[in-house]
Design goal:
This protein has about 130 residues and is α+β, with helices and mostly antiparallel strands. The protein has three helices and five strands. The longest helix has 21 residues.
Length: about 130
């Protein structure tokens, strides 16, 4: 059965897209730790990050770098934190999270509850940056 991320990639489930090329998709996390929390996923469904084919593994960070730069231009923060956890969804992915302190990356913290229109507005600002 396809992962939820594969279903998003195929357009079966909507997302708030902030970047895309032929190999990767970046979209807002719907349960973000901070405004602008973005997921970067390879379009090829592979469960574990370090099991990605070498070319996809080598390319995901340069793609994420461009997305992170756009996030940083529109979301006030000290920097963009990066995390690869991989337990939530069986599809390799990178979290890009605007942070001001280490605790902003604590996944045990309560998530933000943003309305769909708020997420859409954030995604549009990032895409345009």
């Amino acid at each position: 059965m396809p992962s939820i991320f594969t279903r998003i990639i195929h357009g079966e489930i909507p997302c708030h897209k902030v970047g895309e090329d032929e190999r990767y998709l970046a979209f807002l996390d719907i349960n973000p730790l901070r405004e602008g929390h973005t997921l970067v996923v390879p379009k090829l469904e592979v469960d574990k990050f370090f099991e990605l084919p070498p070319d996809l593994l080598a390319g995901i960070m340069p793609f994420a770098q461009g997305v992170a730069a756009r996030i940083a231009r529109v979301v006030p923060c000290d920097r963009i934190g990066v995390s690869v956890v991989g337990l939530e969804v069986p599809h390799a992915h990178v979290h890009l999270i605007p942070i001001d302190r280490v605790s902003d990356m604590d996944f045990s913290r309560p998530k933000l509850k943003l309305a769909n229109d708020e997420l859409a507005a954030i995604a549009e600002r990032i895409r345009k940056a």
